[in-house]
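Dock glyoxylic acid; give full complex structure.
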Amino acid sequence: MSKPTISTTRLNRTLEELGHFGATPQGMQRLAFSPSDIACREYTIQLMHQAGLETRIDQAGNIIARKSGSDPSLPAISLGSHLDTVPHGGKYDGALGVMGAVEVVQTLADAHHGLRHPIEVLVFTNEEGTRFHRWLFGSRAMAGLLEREDMTAIDDEGVSMGSRLTDIGGDLTNVAAAQRRTGEMAAYLELHIEQGPTLYQNGTPIGVVTGITGRSVFSVDITGTANHAGTTPMGSRHDALVSASRLVLAVNRVAKDLEICRVGTVGHLHVQPNAVNVVPGQVNLGVEFRDVDINALSGAEVELRRTAAEIARADGVTIELTVLESTPSVPISGAMQKLVSEAADMGGFAYERLPSGAGHDAQAMAAITRAAMIFVPSVDGISHAPDEFSSPEDCANGTQVLLNLLLLADERL
Ligand code: GLV
Ligand code: MN
Ligand code: MN
């Protein structure tokens, strides 16, 4: 039987249509649980039904779309990703993995090509974690990795996790029931844009992901003394923003100059009272470090704490650090990497192996099943920004590799 081929035109049309939900002149604004996220989920459910999938929403608000296979004794093979975006984000992060998965199922349906395993397409809730500052919510719920803080989380608008989940058909009081057992899935396969420069710079169409980076996130509260900006002498100020600035540079130095870990970023700053004529009294910073090596992450934390204490002493301010998240890196097994490389070979695509510097639902799913990831190039390595772009051809190539990978997994697992 000839191998089924995905439709480049249909895939890129659905991707384009999806990109209208939450589009603004400043980029995609499809935060989890927002009206545009909810509308986008409904559009996706329609596509799933057209492809012959039956859908349900689990207690964590994840969309689970399923079609039976010919052998009822086999566990499902799942494909998926997320539909939410960061603020001012792009059209491809997460969206490609979901639209690619739906395209794969539609292609198989059109070709009347049945599988032995049941197939599932999964859309995970709040992968980005912009809302609640708790990322990978849906996939962690499915993998049994939720933490106490997920249950009590309140978002920046003062709304509880329970209430937001109800809006999308979930149920926080019974969220433990969203957990799937180990063995309930034969594999989880995720297609994603690389979000970094490697594939694009090397001109390689397909990335075989070797592992997903670890990450630690801290909330840092600096308390100085708010005072009149016109009358307070420079020598007697305790300016929390000046101390915060020193800390921003210290975080950069940890990764860039000291090379203690791969990357370090301060991406969030909240200044109080944030008025031009008041010496800032209070600043909250969001600090993030990423590395595949857990020792590098703890090394970065030690250096952060050391510098924070030094700055506090020198500036006469107090600095408090709270660990918000600490996620170890997740390796992809050699066997699953080999399957992805065979899937690329089947389509005649060149590939290279590379680690993921971004986080993905696959890292949570790896706790309960075999996980694999396929990357396609991001033009100029730009992501989490309005200029995020992957060419229609690259999106189609990745989707064809996802289909090939599914066929191989169906045959071998
Ligand atoms: C998820 O998109 C991340 O921040 O890596
Ligand atoms: Mn993503
Ligand atoms: Mn993202």
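Observed: The two ends are 20 Å apart (CA to CA).
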